[in-house]
Design a protein that fits this description.
mainly alpha
Length: 315
């Protein structure tokens, strides 16, 4: 796997360099009212690490990253020309459903339940999975934040449970070289939703008991930001389906924090959680999660731009 990690890393770099002109021509992301960048930058680069990760999964006989690949393709089409949200969600829904049906949770637990309970729990899991995919998509808004944090999260999965993730980690690291501030390319929906679906698949893969769900909180800095923003927008009566710039990481950037500083903050918090999880002490891990939440509240109250609905004018 280490050899595959380095091969995937260098393949990712080579492909991004080779296809940069292509992405610039067909996937140029022009700044708009929701953007945190001011220059036109190519998008869609996430398809590169999706291809690399799925290629090595295929040759290693690992199925579940391949289930996520069609979502990356459809999301690339969305990056290119835009798709209606309902079409995007249908593909996310199917991806989550297939991941569930091919997991040990379904084979060992869900299908042994009464039919009504089985259907209800599968439905809840699908909603949970598609929420994760969209939350990660929401959090891919400034240079390097999602790719850097998820390298750490996936590395813990690879070390503890799923070594076949190393080629994908190598490919994301190769992409991160170009995605770190100042970004030369964005991953786009093709990368962010793919990462979200892989994360959901990893949760399904490692789940054996309720205690195993604790690994989910490795991504707390990203997921708590997305989830708390959703709840707050619902509370103030804002349209939760409307595009906005109200996530904590966006408001930190609006208050004067550079892309690099915000991404480093989220990366540092993710590393702290990864280290505390690796110690194997649940009390230390729980304390770290609480500290991350409290630190997020501090950033929100003291340093971020105010949380309020803004009137957005389209170009």
């Amino acid at each position: 796997m280490i050899i595959q990690f380095f091969i995937s890393f260098f393949c990712s770099i080579f492909l991004i360099k080779s296809l940069m002109t292509f992405f610039t021509k067909f996937f140029l992301d022009l700044p708009n009212y929701r953007s945190s960048h001011v220059k036109a930058i190519p998008s869609g680069g996430g398809i590169i690490f999706a291809i690399c990760g799925c290629f090595f999964s295929f040759i290693n006989g690992i199925w579940f990253p391949l289930i996520c690949f069609p979502l990356s393709i459809v999301s690339l089409i969305d990056d290119f020309r835009g798709l209606k949200p309902v079409y995007r969600y249908i593909v996310q829904f199917i991806t989550a459903l297939v991941l569930i049906f091919n997991s040990d949770i379904y084979k060992n637990i869900l299908r042994n339940l009464p039919l009504a309970s089985e259907i209800f729990l599968i439905f809840l899991l699908v909603i949970f999975g598609t929420a994760i995919m969209n939350f990660f998509n929401f959090m891919d808004g400034i240079d390097g934040i999602l790719s850097s944090c998820m390298v750490i999260v996936f590395a813990i999965f690879a070390i503890k449970f799923l070594p076949f993730l190393w080629p994908l980690i190598g490919a994301i690291l190769g992409f991160l070289i170009f995605n770190w501030h100042p970004a030369k390319i964005f991953m786009g929906d093709s990368g962010s939703t793919f990462i979200g679906s892989i994360f959901f698949g990893c949760i399904l893969q490692v789940f054996k008991s309720i205690d195993d769900l604790s690994i989910f909180f490795l991504a707390s800095p990203l997921l708590f930001d997305a989830f708390s923003c959703l709840l707050r927008r619902f509370y103030i009566g804002a349209n939760i389906f409307k595009p906005h710039k109200m996530h904590l990481y966006q408001r930190l950037n609006q208050s004067g924090f550079s892309h690099q500083k915000v991404s480093l903050l989220y990366l540092l918090l993710t590393i702290i959680l990864a280290l505390s999880y690796s110690l194997g002490n649940q009390n230390i891990y729980l304390a770290s999660i609480l500290l991350v939440i409290l630190f997020g509240i501090l950033l929100d109250n003291k340093y971020a731009a105010p949380f309020k609905e803004r009137r957005i004018l389209k170009d």
